[in-house]
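FAQ: What does the model actually see?

It sees only this:
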Amino acid sequence: MTKPLPQYLNDFLEYCEVEKGLSVNSVRSYARFLQRFFAFLKERNLTHLIPERLTDEHISKYRVWLSRRPNAVRRASRGLHPSTQIRYLIALRAFLRYFHEKNIPTVPTEKIKLPKERKERLIKFLEVEQLKRFFDAPSTQTDAGLRDRAILETLFSTGLRVAELVALNTKRISGALDREDFELSIVGKGGYPRVVYFSRRTLECLKRYLKSRHDDDEALFISYRGPRRDSRRLTVRGVELVVEKYSKIAGIPFLATPHTLRHSFATDLLNKGVDLRFVQEFLGHRNIATTQIYTHVTSKRLRDIHRKFHGGAELG
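And it is asked to produce this:
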């Protein structure tokens, strides 16, 4: 006997984890993205809808609903960005594919058409002066300020994704705080391992932060707010709020995110002449095409080289 669509969520997530072998972060993302679809159903009194009653028209109306949703983070009224809409639609398509594999009739996955993104993706990153203001924004007179400074410095020094940052544990870092630099092996997106590097400057920030800690929580970055739980590990959203807060304090002309610091890390390396292939390794990209979003840097450097060495000045 078939159930209403929302009641299949746990079955689908178990399928993703056990049968598809997806990472914990990927499973959580699917859960979060599908909640948007369930909110759409609830708004239209369709929470009772079973898979076989789902139609092309429902999918079409969900796409329109997504395109008109205000962006809660940036308070934008023009709707979700196409790249954000794509994430929600890909999650729904995976949900429908699960039904097909379990021989539960529903609308074909081909009915979910993804909106087109702009061909050129604009990367937001921080210039050197902006980074200085950013890092000076937290007050290091408080425990939370010491933590926040360490978070910002670590994101920029390592190029870590925010989910990789919050997963760090104190014991893996504490023994390296008096070194000139430190390298750490992590398992990143898709379960692929890579090495990240901590500068002396970052290790000093971490040392001051950990010296202020008087707890035995294993998490490197903890929350100082909310109820005391078994673990006070800072969440992904918690780090996002930290970065947004100091983005405003530092007067950054756009709302920075943890990924902005990852972009800044890559941009800084390329500006200093590091080959794109090495940047690919630092970032943990499996495909060089992913790293090529930083062509705003390489293109500028090529232009400067052309201007300097092939300006045609000798021709008058």
